[in-house]
Design goal:
With 164 residues, this protein is α+β, with helices and mostly antiparallel strands. Helix content is 20%, strand content 32%. It is built from 3 helices and 12 strands. The protein is globular and about 60 Å long. It starts with 9 loop residues before the first strand and ends with a strand.
Length: 164
């Protein structure tokens, strides 16, 4: 008899894949969702159907809601999702490539340990940097190394990201 122990993260010999989203702590989740949706060509998630259902049942109160883009939204959270990915129509939540912004009380104080790289495409970095600056990003520095060139930027709340 042979030892056939499975590797961690596998089920029946097949590797398990996990769904995920990138969660970003911030001061203003709606401003961040708007910025990143515009930056990436994503859509701001619309949770109003779920919110109306929860309000109607008394499960939530107006105190945790705001109006954003003419509809009710969570005060302390907002999401942006890839427009071609599936989403749950009952909740408005994306089921694929997704960014979730959640309000936290403390401000950003140090360099990010995780950041987004935006791939502009060949010859389009400067044009993309200009567009993102117009949306509220700032240029931190230009990098030119043997491995390539990119621009380090910050989103409206100072979170670093790169444009290559």
């Amino acid at each position: 008899m042979t030892d056939t122990a499975e590797a961690p993260g596998t089920a029946g010999g097949a590797r398990e894949t996990l769904g995920w989203k990138l969660v970003v702590d911030c001061a203003d989740p709606h401003r961040q969702a708007d910025f990143w949706a515009a930056a990436l060509g994503y859509e701001v998630e619309d949770h109003s159907v779920l919110i109306e259902r929860l309000l109607g049942s008394g499960a939530v109160g107006e105190d945790i809601l705001v109006e954003h883009h003419g509809r009710r939204a969570w005060r302390d959270a907002a999401g942006a999702r890839h427009p071609q990915d599936p989403f749950d129509p009952e909740s408005g939540t994306g089921l694929g490539r997704r960014l979730l912004f959640q309000r936290v009380p403390e401000p950003k104080t140090v360099k990010n340990r995780l950041h987004i790289d935006v791939h502009a495409g060949a010859g389009r970095r400067e044009e993309t940097v200009t567009r993102l600056t117009g949306l509220g990003a700032t240029v931190i520095r230009q990098v030119k190394e043997a491995s390539g060139e990119w621009t380090v930027m910050a989103d409206p709340e100072g979170n670093e990201f790169c444009v290559a």
